[in-house]
Amino acid sequence: xxxxxxxxxxxxxxxxxxxxxxxxxxxxxxxxxxxxxxxxxxxxxxxxxxxxxxxxxxxxxxxxxxxxxxxxxxxxxxxxxxxxxxxxxxxxxxxxxxxxxxxxxxxxxxxxxxxxxxxxxxxxxxxxxxxxxxxxxxxxxxxxxxxxxxxxxxxxxxxxxxxxxxxxxxxxxxxxxxxxxxxxxxxxxxxxxxxxxxxxxxxxxxxxxxxxxxxxxxxxxxxxxxxxxxxxxxxxxxxxxxxxxxxxxxxxxxxxxxxxxxxxxxxxxxxxxxxxxxxxxxxxxxxxxxxxxxxxxxxxxxxxxxxxxxxxxxxxxxxxxx
Length: 322
Description:
Elements (H helix, E strand, L loop, with lengths): L1 H8 L6 H14 L5 H6 L6 E6 L5 H16 L3 E6 L4 H13 L4 E4 L7 H8 L4 E4 L9 E5 L1 H15 L4 E6 L4 H16 L4 H4 E6 L4 H13 L7 E4 L2 H13 L9 E6 L12 E4 L2 H14 L9 E4 L2 E3 L10
Parallel strand pairs: 1-2, 1-3, 3-4, 4-5, 5-11, 6-7, 6-8, 8-9, 9-10
Antiparallel strand pairs: 10-12
Helix pairs in contact: 4-12, 7-8, 10-11
């Protein structure tokens, strides 16, 4: 009976072959667990919430897959929610998930402040931060070092000889995007350049690829001297920029070099192929789910897992002309 209980409640503790035999036997007799009754007995829910900025974004899709695969190993199910980078939507989803007494929530916060998430955990709902380092020891966090990522991108352009850069960034103050800006500034200062003079920030507000292309290209061409190297806050923006520059007859990397961020599947297939900063997205999601599951271990201690980004050098970057 204890083996059956472990298969139902702690499947990752049971040998694969044993678990398969027990599950086959349950299938034969048509057994279906009563989740509501299980929670009445004090057992944790098998439903986990994941509140992300945009579940349609390929980056978050890959991250969520890592979460889902780890939860599946533990017999849990994932519910995904998009905030659209809106604090009110984030609050709405968190409230609804708390009402459903979920096992816990993984959150990519809209803002740098996490007081409301600390309070949520204090009320009994475990929380793990994604894309937010967590300034205190009260919450677990899994994050890529975005400061280092921004620094990698900018240093690559500086090493090629560029001395005036641009950062195409989201208009909303998402912590990960702000951290990349910090890294770019750090690289400029290390090269003895003043970010106030050597860096142009272009805010991205458009919803469609065409809108983003128009506003980023206009932002670049509107400055004199014109930046010769651009770091984009994600690969989707870099894709839009490449399209916009091609439409204007501006050569990449001959006249402007472009660096993306994320290393999504399409990055290597573009023409020119995209130099970008790779994030271990799937591993990040898998590790975050593992942190959440560990919240129920008797000797749980909060952890902050920081993953290192990697620069993928391809054809969209080169030495500045002249």
